[in-house]
Amino acid sequence: MDSKLVTTILLRMPNWLGDSVMCASSVQKLKDSFPNARFIIVGSEVCRVFERDKRVEKVIIDTSKTYAKAQKNAYKQALQALQNRAQNTAQDSLRNPTQDFLQDSLQSPARGGFLQRLKLRISYLAKFWQRNRIYATFLLAQNARGAQISISFNNGFFGALFLFFTRAKIRIGYGKNLRGLLLTHSYKIPRFTPLHQVQKYEFLLHEIVDSQILNALYPLQLPRGGENGFKNESVLRKFAEFAESRGEDSMQSAPKYIGINPGAAFGSAKCWEESYFIEVIKFFLAQGHFVALFGSDIKLSARINAGLEDFESGDYGLKNFIDLTNKTTLYELVDSLGALDLFITNDSGPMHIASALGTPSISIFGPTDMSDTCGWNLEIAKKYFYENALAFGADSQKIAKKPAIERENLVLVKNTAILCKHLPCAPCKKRICPLKHHQCMKDITPELVISTAKQMQVV
Questions:
Q1: What is the mean pLDDT of the chain?
Q2: N or C: which end of the chain has fewer CB within 10 A?
Q3: Binning pLDDT at 50, 70 and 90, where does residue 78 land?
Q4: What is d(CA 227, CA 235) in angstroms, rounded to the nearest whole number?
Q5: 3-state SS of the chain?
Q6: β-pairing verdict for 290-293 and 257-261
Q7: Is the pLDDT reported for residue 281 higher than 90?
Q8: Amino acid 77: pLDDT
Q9: What angle do CA 149, 155, 157 make, to 5 degrees?
């Protein structure tokens, strides 16, 4: 397709933060192939990570999944409002005994309220066919009309249905589970290995993007908000104030900003041991570094804070520790992770944000497949993964073999480290350890994480 004719490209993003971030290289390749196009981004709240991109025309939040429930709640609220109004009117009538009895009977608030509630209920029941996700998806698509190319990185049925309702001439996606009937370009997921999730998303572009661009290894890139992060964000001002109060001469080198992300989506199996996180936090605090705790799990945060209560070390203690659990917006999270000197994390959405920002990171893997979802940057891509043209159909017998990332206990490439023990039972990809021992995470010790941080020479 002539790039000059493409004015708008519609992208239906995955629902999870990490998956959306891993689409960033695909977005960049589309930008380079269609330099004049504007983009419409559709997805859950996490797709707002692209909202600050100047070429994003608008971001549409998909609420179709909760549409029926929202309609039901709106009906209940309207019904309750009518009941409250009828009761208030009746009470006012009792307080005014001089009212004409006949007029009061003919214009009874109870009668009027009953008729209004009956009308509201009939209207609600009569429109039952509108209270479903298909109709909600149709309504959502009306806000995204006009795109020449539409791509669903989301693998759900409703992602493909959404593209169909937008009436875009080119509708691209993976065709499993009847999605192919709704798409003009339907593909099967490539089976070539190793193949990172980033490359699986890029594969969807192979018929519309220039081959030279497709075959290039791109880093993940996220738009940033400028000079934000620890030095300017009010929520993190405590760090800067503490640094100024004690001065830089109290240490041989300037203190570092260490981020800790102890949580992860999809269950506890992906999470490193809480006691290990506590031990690592204590180590960095004892060295005089600043430590910020990220995440959204308040209960997990409370347990980690409880484990730090009695910590004392020289002049520092907990003065340079701050708990940011559930206290940052998505923008603040991006800007804060970009300001870190080191980020220690489970396999999670923030891990992929850190990769996209070039933040030095240590990622801890257990039950998930690191060859599929490890942090993506150019160094890792060049060393462990084939270029797209090779991965999408070339004769594997003629390709020089790459090191097997799924067999390495420590991947250390420039500013990125990945730790994984590769037990025989892993990757099980379960939410909770099915064998009840969680050994894939327990075998990665705090001492190993600390020594890895020293090897990276970032602390």
A1: 86
A2: N
A3: confident
A4: 14
A5: CCHHHCCEEEEECCCCHHHHHCCHHHHHHHHHHCCCCEEEEEECHHHHHHCCCCCEEEEEECCHHHHHHHHHHHHHHHHHHHHHHHHHHHHHHHCCCCCCHHHHHHCCHHHHHHHHHHHHHHHHHHCHHHCCHHHHHHHHHHHHCCCCEEEECCCCHHHHHHHHHHCCCEEEEECCCCHHHHCCEEECCCCCCCCCHHHHHHHCCCCCCCHHHHHCCCCCCCCCCCCCCCCCCHHHHHHHHHHHHHCHHHCCCCCCEEEEECCCCCCHHHCCCHHHHHHHHHHHHHCCCEEEECCCCHHHHHHHHHHHCCCCCCCCCCCCEEECCCCCCHHHHHHHHHCCCEEEEECCHHHHHHHHHCCCEEEECCCCCHHHHCCCCHHHHHHHCCCHHHHCCCCHHHCCCCCCHHHCCEEEECCEEEECCCCCCCCCCCCCCCCCCCHHHHCCCHHHHHHHHHHCCCC
A6: parallel
A7: yes
A8: 87
A9: 90
Interval 37-76: pLDDT, tens: 999 999 999 999 999 999 999 999 999 999 888 888 888 8
Which has more confidence, 91 or 351? 351
Spacing of C-alpha 76 from chain mean position:
32
HSE-CB of 233 using CA atoms within 13 angstroms? 21
**If phi over 0 gives left and psi between -120 and 50 gives alpha, with beta otherwise, what is residue 295?**
left
Of the listed ranges 219-223, 306-310, 314-318, 408-412, the least confidently predicted one is 314-318
pLDDT at 229: 47
**Residue 17: pLDDT over 50:** yes
**Beta carbons of 418 and 449 less than 8 angstroms apart:** no
Q: Which residue reads 């339907």 in tokens? A: 186
Kindly report the number of other CB atoms within 10 A of residue 385's CB atom: 22
- Tokens encoding 133: 């996700």
pLDDT, tens only, 151-176: 999 999 999 999 999 999 999 999 98
User: Which amino acid, 324?
Assistant: L
Query: How high is the pLDDT of residue 246?
Result: 45
Burial class (CB in 10 A: 0-12, 13-18, 19+), 235: middle
Q: Which residue has the higher pLDDT, 309 or 87?
A: 309
pLDDT at 177: 83
Q: Are 17 and 353 in contact (CB under 8 A)?
A: yes
Using alpha carbons only, how large is the chain's radius of gyration in Å?
27
Using alpha carbons, select from 375, 358, 356, 353 the residue that is nearest to residue 419. Answer: 375
Output the six-digit token pair for 198.
């980033």
Q: How would residue 227 be classed by pLDDT, with cut points 50, 70 and 90?
A: very low
Residue 57: per-residue pLDDT: 95
